[in-house]
């Protein structure tokens, strides 16, 4: 069965893109909606992407009800949930299934969740999340024989936990688990992503008592949540970065909306540094275009928000293939985020892994650094390079957008295998590319 994009590249791409709802916000809001008792929750601006559809399917399998009642309007009802165990097959298909701990524990008092699925871009720090759950009073054990975590909620959570390193998934899960706390739960060194604030706003609108002071979050437990008004998912800043990078690499002009500058501020800073004009055009939209016929090269290091996000660096790598000079990308968040490099080289990109040493790697990197393991955490890109057509394979979601971008820049026809992986996080990708003048079709 085909699962490919056929792309004919080499065109200047320009126009306007209206952003979809954020994948990383929508998934967590859907799961948080299961915390409500005997109420139908309505979420707006929910992207109809593969990960969302998979989560909806999983909720329905568990006995709950989730369905789109309009184009991007989702209704969720947890009152009919009937099982506390997520089966291995469906749990492994989507990483966010791990966060079902919160609603299932409050519904049944115990639950069984398999090791999470999703993109394999590194050994994500599940241990930090489990440590946090235990710190606030959740009993959790893991069976290597079955591959399942078993959690028990014998009393309402309370206590304090400080993340060793910020974790957006850990922060979101512990917030959900603490909404009905016995008294207060205090979380420190929390992640700062705007998607987390979107979750906090949703829960507070429904009666939760959550206060954030920079990287400290204090949750005062409430007895129940009460749904009042439909809630809107924020725009997908990762999608914004993808289309901005694509248009700039083709030396086009693009308008993107709606997006808040503070959500992509570090990206804007780098765009300006290499010679790209960033113009605010209304309350929540921006127009981008190159100052001249060439970009300057620059270096980046990834870090959690408000830094330059790890999800953005694959897109940035393609943009840097069109910049003059050598550009370095240092990946600090995940230890396997450069799987796209060999694929880009198939299209003519000049990229090499380089040695990069720091005195304190355990502190410098956000993953669990193992001193006995060899890491490749830095690449050097030489540009500008005229990319050529070829056949490439998508390995993970953000790499998928990267390879599609590169194929759209390259002359002639390219084949990008693994289209379904890209569709996990991008809504109407083909249609949006075509609206910018790109030639792309999906063969399924």
Describe this entry's structure for a reader.
The chain has 444 residues and is α/β, with parallel strands linked by helices. It folds into two domains: 4-20 and 235-443, UDP-n-acetylglucosamine1-carboxyvinyl-transferase, Chain, CATH 3.65.10; 23-232, UDP-n-acetylglucosamine1-carboxyvinyl-transferase, Chain, CATH 3.65.10.10. It is 30% helix and 25% strand. It contains 15 helices and 24 strands. It has helices at residues 23-32, 50-61, 88-93, 101-108, 126-135, 168-178, 194-205, 237-249, 265-274, 313-320, 341-346, 361-364, 397-409, 419-422, 429-435, and strands at residues 4-9, 15-18, 40-44, 65-70, 73-77, 110-114, 139-143, 148-152, 159-162, 184-188, 209-213, 216-220, 231-232, 254-257, 276-280, 286-290, 295-296, 300-301, 323-330, 350-353, 378-383, 391-393, 412-417, 439-443. Strands 17, 18, 19, 20 and 21 form a five-stranded mixed sheet that branches. The chain has a four-stranded mixed sheet with strand order 22-23-1-24. Strands 2-14-16-15 form a four-stranded mixed sheet. Strand 7 and strand 8 (148-152) form a beta hairpin. The longest helix is centred in the middle third of the chain and has 13 residues, at 237-249. It is globular. The termini are close together. 48% of the residues are buried. The model is unreliable at 118-124 (pLDDT under 50).
């Amino acid at each position: 069965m085909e699962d490919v994009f056929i792309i004919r590249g080499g065109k200047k791409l320009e126009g306007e893109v209206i952003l979809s709802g954020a994948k990383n916000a929508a998934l967590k809001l859907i799961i948080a909606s299961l915390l409500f008792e005997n109420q139908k929750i309505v979420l707006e601006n929910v992207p109809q992407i593969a990960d969302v559809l998979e989560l909806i399917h999983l909720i329905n399998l568990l006995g709950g009800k989730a369905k789109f009642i309009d184009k991007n309007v989702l209704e969720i009802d947890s009152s009919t949930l009937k099982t506390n165990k997520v089966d291995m097959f469906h749990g492994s298909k989507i990483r966010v299934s791990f966060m079902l701990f919160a609603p299932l524990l409050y519904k049944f008092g115990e639950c069984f969740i398999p090791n999470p699925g999703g993109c394999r871009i590194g050994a994500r720090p599940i241990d930090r999340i489990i440590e946090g759950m235990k710190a606030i009073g959740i009993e959790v054990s893991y069976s290597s024989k079955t591959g399942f975590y078993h959690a028990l909620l014998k009393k309402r959570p309370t206590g304090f936990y400080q993340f060793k390193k910020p974790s957006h998934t850990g922060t979101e899960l512990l917030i959900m688990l603490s909404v009905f706390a016995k008294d207060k739960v205090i979380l420190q060194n929390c992640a700062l992503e705007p998607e987390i604030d979107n979750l906090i706003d949703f829960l507070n609108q429904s009666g939760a008592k959550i206060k954030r002071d920079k990287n400290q979050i204090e949750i005062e437990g409430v007895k129940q949540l009460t749904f009042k008004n439909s809630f809107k998912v924020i725009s997908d800043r990762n999608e914004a970065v993808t289309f901005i990078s694509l248009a700039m690499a083709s030396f086009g002009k693009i308008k993107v909306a709606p997006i808040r500058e503070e959500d992509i501020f570090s990206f804007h800073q780098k765009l300006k540094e290499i010679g790209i004009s960033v113009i605010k055009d209304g309350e929540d939209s921006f127009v981008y275009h190159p100052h001249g016929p060439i970009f300057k090269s620059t270096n980046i290091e990834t870090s959690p928000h408000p830094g330059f996000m790890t999800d953005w660096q694959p897109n940035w790598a393609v943009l840097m293939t069109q910049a003059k000079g050598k550009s370095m990308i240092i990946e600090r968040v995940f230890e396997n985020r450069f799987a796209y490099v060999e694929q880009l080289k198939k299209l003519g990109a000049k990229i090499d892994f380089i040695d990069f040493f720091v005195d304190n790697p355990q502190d410098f990197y956000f993953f669990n650094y193992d001193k006995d393991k060899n890491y490749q955490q830095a690449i050097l890109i030489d540009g500008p390079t005229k990319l050529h057509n070829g056949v490439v394979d998508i390995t993970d979601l953000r790499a998928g957008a990267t390879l599609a971008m590169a194929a759209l820049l390259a002359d002639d026809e390219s084949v990008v295998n693994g289209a379904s992986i890209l569709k996990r996080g991008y809504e109407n990708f083909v249609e949006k590319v075509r609206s910018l003048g790109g030639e792309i079709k999906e063969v399924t």
